[in-house]
Amino acid sequence: MPELVFFSGTMDCGKSTLALQIEHNRSARGLQGLIFTRDDRAGEGKLSSRLGLVTDAVEVEDGMDLYAYIVDHLSQGGRADYVIADEAQFLGPEQIDQLARVVDDLDVDVYAFGITTDFRTKLFPGSQRLVELADRVEVLQVEALCWCGSRATHNARTVGGVMVVEGAQVVVGDVNRSADEIGYEVLCRRHHRRRMTSASAHAAALSPDVLPVSPS
Ligand SMILES: Nc1ncnc2c1ncn2[C@@H]1O[C@H](COP(=O)(O)OP(=O)(O)O)[C@@H](O)[C@H]1O
Ligand SMILES: Cc1cn([C@H]2C[C@H](O)[C@@H](COP(=O)(O)O)O2)c(=O)[nH]c1=O
């Protein structure tokens, strides 16, 4: 039975790499997929992984009907043996419904990849709809780690190196950015709640609890 599968996790846990591996393995066996993405860091119409791999993809726009796009593609003689949708958190809920319809009405597997929650720990609308509709939600096996060594489960946004909890839900960006840029860091829940990034933990470790007593 064809499935709608949501591969979900934090930033930097290998989602795009897995999407590229699924694409590679299927195309190596003569299958042809349709790849969608939205707002990949590598630019419009690209699906990229931090391991350096990149492939062309269809850039999803607001209001684009993914079901109609695929039906149109098929009716023009194109093939869609499977569908990959990366950065699926940025898709609208109605676009996730369209992907579910692709599975049910066209008998095509759809593999969606995305982060579940934003920097405020709130579900992205697209991810929420995927959790509601997917046949399976798969958590990636490669653990992204918090600076403390625990499994990272949440995404923090940093501005000027400081964790923020207010701002627009969507700001395209990356982990390991310099302190003057808007960036992201993956954290365990404990340290996300305490707003402790690696930089603030490092600063706290350096600041002595007791002021040194100068010799009189
Ligand atoms: N230099 C590197 N050497 C080995 N693995 C790396 C390197 N850089 C990134 N990675 C791996 O790539 C993962 C990020 O992959 P990516 O597909 O870009 O993540 P996501 O799409 O989930 O944000 C990291 O968790 C790490 O395992
Ligand atoms: C937490 C969070 C992330 N984003 C953006 C930042 C990146 O451009 C993508 C995630 O990409 P990845 O391949 O999973 O690393 O999402 C955002 O816009 N808002 C957020 O709250």
TrEMBL record:
Keywords of this entry: ATP-binding, Cytoplasm, DNA synthesis, Kinase, Nucleotide-binding, Transferase
Binding of substrate, residues: 170-173, 184
Binding site for ATP: 9-16, 86-89
Coiled coil: none
GO biological process, one term: DNA biosynthetic process
Record GO terms (molecular function): ATP binding; thymidine kinase activity
SUPFAM superfamilies linked to this entry: Glucocorticoid receptor-like (DNA-binding domain), P-loop containing nucleoside triphosphate hydrolases
InterPro entries: P-loop_NTPase (IPR027417), Thymidine_kinase (IPR001267)
Pfam families: TK
Residues annotated as catalytic: 87 (proton acceptor)
Reactions that this protein is recorded to catalyse: thymidine + ATP = dTMP + ADP + H(+)
Enzyme kind, highest EC tier: transferase
Domain of life: Bacteria
Family note: Belongs to the thymidine kinase family.
Name of protein: Thymidine kinase
Organism: Streptomyces spiralis
The encoding gene: tdk
